[in-house]
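Most newcomers find our protein records easier to grasp once they have seen one. The structure tokens are whole numbers drawn from a learned vocabulary of backbone shapes. The record below serves as our worked example for the rest of this section.
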Amino acid sequence: MRDTEGTAPAIGNRRRAAAFWSVAYAYLVIMLGTTLPSPLYGLYQDRFTFDAGMLTIIFAAYAGGVLVALLLFGGLSDRVGRRPVVTAALTVAGLSGALFVLADDVVVLLAARVVSGVAAGLITGVAAAALTELEPQGRARRAAVVSTTVSTFGLGLGPLVAGLLAEYGPWPVRLPFVVYLVLLVPALFLVRWMPTTAPRQPGGTARWHIRRPAVARAGRPAFSVASMAAFPAFAVLGFFTSLAPTFLSGELGIGNIAISGLMVFAVFAASGSVQLLFRRLHDRSAITFGVAVVPVGLLLIVLALRADSLPLFIAGVLAGGAGSGLAFMGSLTLINRLAPAADRAQTVSAYFVVCYLAISVPVIGLGFAAEAFGRCPAALAFAVLIGGLALVAGEINIAVARAEKNNPRRSTNRSETGGQTRPRVLSESRSTSG
């Protein structure tokens, strides 16, 4: 079953399809594991007696693990192939699950979050690249939609599963991770049959060395726009996966863990649903609409906290999730469209470095601001900052799109057949873009 050529075209369609969905399942399970702790933080706070400031540090520990993995190993699969990196990500995810099961103090909890972040960082860049290469009909747009949808629903399922198990099952902070470890087993088995699909490197045998995620010079203007759009989208997701359950219990008086998990799931369900519904939307249009809806969701959250209104909070959850989903889909599709095949994983990793900075840094500030000034003033400041950034990103995206329309020779050249971007044309775009 080994792919001796190491390239996607040598793989039969049936085997490509099986490998495609195997990678998708592995990606789903690892993403599920990264958000399992979201509705459990209140239980951890009671057991280990830490405040909202420490909570944001624990959350940031996860993001730190992601960034370390992306920075050190973002381009690894371009050298050694996709399968070894996916296998490593699943193994590290298993270690994080074991640490959560054994966690009996803040130190072990921090370690578990860091290891979970490393697993997410390993899988993030390689999964998007592998799905693009393994899509049976070579449809790059479909691969991007599957990648973002699987990631989004995986992130949403984590809080839902953990909330239900913690509220209605035994061992509330351990059982969710026992289930998680069970889910990882078939992923490890399936990935064993995945072909290694890295682009062949010049000069023969690929030798790995640490490379920082980077972006080809010609694609940097568009990469900047995509990153600006992704930042507010991921900042909103960071809020819901870290502090939203605390805001629910503290401001709205809802202490049911299952409901907290359901709220976080609703954010990602809304995000994933709009990605499926609007999967044919052009990447520039998806970015524009997405960053316009994000501030609406933030405004509704602030109003909900001030009015102690659960319906307004739910409306904010759905609007924030929908806007984030569109911005994420549009920006990642834009990145995949621009990335040369030989550097695809490294470019996607650079994009996700920005995303995970967005998911952690603003939330850390929000957590400490909530301790110092109260939850409502902190939420208002967060909404103004992130909503304003989203509007600026939208204006810049519209301006760049107009410039490309008026001067098409300066836009990225591409040739598509059934939605597939040809690697040869992508490489040539280095001299014709920007």
About this structure: Residues 163 and 259 are 7 Å apart (CA to CA). Confidence is low (pLDDT under 50) at residues 1-10, 412-434. Strands lie at 416-417, 420-421.
